[in-house]
């Protein structure tokens, strides 16, 4: 039975057990009327919560922009109305309390030591700017030397690479990329390459001032052994470690004390059901660099990053205030966020394997390195030979088949080419979130099979 069917069965089972429990209660005159604590969300309630999704689209791309249920959107509207009803009272009496409440909940979710370590910002991009800005100042103020370096993964997110260029390279810092293999078979392959990059940074007496490590790379999507890499950074004397975990909260288990990074950011609008946009930036309290500031300077400048970030001028803060409502939504699922993550992971691997089998390809990593996303090889006969082909194929799938899925271009592997084998040069990044159904993936499977049957190649996408 595939996990979707299992999920349906599971919801039915829970539905049955509610009726059963209620019947028991009704029959037992001594039992006080209990709230329906065992009533997990049903399949039809999930459909209602996401009924604003375009029904024509098989949306197997939660990874890019996340999703937000209706109950949370209603809570957000309520906050917006509270603001507009009496703006002065809201700004001066309620806003800060609300943001602090969200920070406290996030602190517990990520096992930080202290709420002071948790700031709420717009998104991972903003968090990155906060971390890199103080690195840039260290160069310009002479605390770091021109040859000192920043190590980052080759698969770092494009916008993060641009930030490193803007804040670090421009200030005179060297940047060293860790070249990672893909397809990837084990954590060890990543660890070996990471060590090589650190050695390079330390050669000729250089210092590695910053390591930027993804927890889950975006494209291709792979869970990185972040705890091991942070430990290596400590052993090798790297000054600061920043984990870009834009995809992590609600996708993989998080524990700030276990991971041990100096800075860690994750978007809550990707896998944690918040509306856009909200991210947390965790900054380890000890030793906390004193030079951390929000890039948008306002009244609270100098009062600590968390306080600065909670007041960056007049704007809509509602997405930062709905964290308690998001948790209410999440707790309607068996096992809360851990249960959701476990089922999503299992389902995405199952769907990925189903697609790979149908297309005669393979997954880009072992299942243990997949979060709630998986990279699935596309048939080589589609003729994907450059980045632009992936972008066009994605649009083709959206416009002609109603499928939303990002495609990754992989330079083909020489070994296979030498043997005269066709190599997989394109991988689809599929996601699984609570609203997805088996039909979403079957539609994708059938669309690709149809293209193959029709003799389609990406060259045809350039004919008009
Ligand atoms: C790895 C990674 N880092 C950073 C970001 C930036 O996130 P945002 O656009 O919400 O700032 C993304 C977005 O997809 C990402 O995948």
From TrEMBL:
Biased composition regions of type Basic and acidic residues, renumbered to the chain: 1-15
Q: Which keywords, in A-to-Z order, does the entry hold?
A: Pyridoxal phosphate
Instruction: Name the domain of life.
Output: Eukaryota
Keyword Cell membrane among UniProt keywords? no
Domain called Aminotransferase class V: residue spans: 95-288
Q: Which Pfam families match?
A: Aminotran_5 (PF00266)
Region described as Disordered: 1-36
Descriptive protein name: Aminotransferase class V domain-containing protein
């Amino acid at each position: 039975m595939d996990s979707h069917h299992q999920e349906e069965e599971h919801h039915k089972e829970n539905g049955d057990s509610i009726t059963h429990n209620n019947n028991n209660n009704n029959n037992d005159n001594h039992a006080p009327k209990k709230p329906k604590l065992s009533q997990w969300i049903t399949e039809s309630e999930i459909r209602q919560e996401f009924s604003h999704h375009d029904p024509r689209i098989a949306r197997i791309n939660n990874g890019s922009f996340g999703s937000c249920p209706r109950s949370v959107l209603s809570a957000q509207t309520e906050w917006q109305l509270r603001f507009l009803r009496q703006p002065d009272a809201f700004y001066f009496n309620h806003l800060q309390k609300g943001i602090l409440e969200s920070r406290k909940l996030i602190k517990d979710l990520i096992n930080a030591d202290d709420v002071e370590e948790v700031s709420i910002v717009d998104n991972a991009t903003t968090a990155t700017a906060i971390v890199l800005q103080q690195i840039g100042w260290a160069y310009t103020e002479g605390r770091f030397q021109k040859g000192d370096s920043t190590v980052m993964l080759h698969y770092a997110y494009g916008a993060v690479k641009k930030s490193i260029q803007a804040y670090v390279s421009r200030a005179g810092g060297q940047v060293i990329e860790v070249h990672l293999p893909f397809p990837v078979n084990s954590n060890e392959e990543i660890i070996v390459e990471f060590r090589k990059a650190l050695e390079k940074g330390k050669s000729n007496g250089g210092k590695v001032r910053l390591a930027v490590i993804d927890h889950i790379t975006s494209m291709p999507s792979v869970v990185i052994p972040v705890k091991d890499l942070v430990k290596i950074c400590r052993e090798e004397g790297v000054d600061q470690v920043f984990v870009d975990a834009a995809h992590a909260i609600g996708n993989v288990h998080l524990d700030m004390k276990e991971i041990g990074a100096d800075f860690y950011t994750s978007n809550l609008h990707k896998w944690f059901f918040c509306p856009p946009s909200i991210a947390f930036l965790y900054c380890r309290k000890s030793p906390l660099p004193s030079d951390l500031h929000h890039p948008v300077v306002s009244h609270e400048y100098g009062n600590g990053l968390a306080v600065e970030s909670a007041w960056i001028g007049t704007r809509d803060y509602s997405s930062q205030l709905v964290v308690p409502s998001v948790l209410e939504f999440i707790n309607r699922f068996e096992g809360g966020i851990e249960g959701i993550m476990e089922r999503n992971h299992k389902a995405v691997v199952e769907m990925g394997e189903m697609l790979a089998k149908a297309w005669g390809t393979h997954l880009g990593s072992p299942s243990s390195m997949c979060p709630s996303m998986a990279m699935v090889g596309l048939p080589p006969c589609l003729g994907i030979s450059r980045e632009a082909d992936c972008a066009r194929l994605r649009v083709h799938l959206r416009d002609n088949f109603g499928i939303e899925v990002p495609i990754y271009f992989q330079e083909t592997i020489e070994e296979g080419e030498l043997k005269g084998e066709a190599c997989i040069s394109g991988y689809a990044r599929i996601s699984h979130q609570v609203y997805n159904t088996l039909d979403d993936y079957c539609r994708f499977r059938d669309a690709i099979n149809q293209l193959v049957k029709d003799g389609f190649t990406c060259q045809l996408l350039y004919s008009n």
